[in-house]
Write the structure tokens for this entry.
Amino acid sequence: MTDSQKCIPQPDEVIPATPAWDGSLLACCGDPSTPRGWGICCLTFWLPCITHGLNLKILYTVQKAVLGVLLFFALGYVLYCIVIPAMYLTVFKAPDIVACELNVIYTQPTSGPVDPDFGQKLLDCQKPAWIKIWVAVAFAWACAVLLIIYLTTIRMKVRRRLAIPAAHNSCTGFLQDFCTMWWCAACALCQENRTLHKRASAIPHVRTVPTTPPVLPKMEV
């Protein structure tokens, strides 16, 4: 057989399918008629940490799933729902800043042209707060990047457990999964959930262990 013929599948040759994700990345709802359809889509939209925990439960154990949910919640919800609003209220709405702003507003003339330095005076009132705001923004971005890196490592572990090939090499594969999680985290979590449920038997610790003891051959005396 020549080299050109080796590249052509023979009629009786069975070509094994390459393991891949169950559905495309943008097929977030999958099959709407199944539990992995609209249900997991809505759950991931409102509570992505729960979907992440369900994925970890299949991939690892319940204990690691609980830890993963807590880490997701700490880096995600606590950051965006508590830390950033609290920083805004305590910095921009601090009493001294509000008093300075009100003083600038009420000292403006009631008639005639507006003070040309009105906007600059308001900015000067908020100037002490800008350093704190930039610290808060840097902290927010750091938490966001750490969360995406964490989700990226989990996605790469799903790839390895299910033998789903990555692009080119490990570095490029990490960048691919990182960008996927950064731009489409909810869709990626749904895709992982569908794939793990469909191919859970391929994961070593999920395989069913036979309960029937093996039959040992009788030894002749």
About this structure: The longest helix spans residues 118-162. DSSP finds eight helices and no strands in the chain.
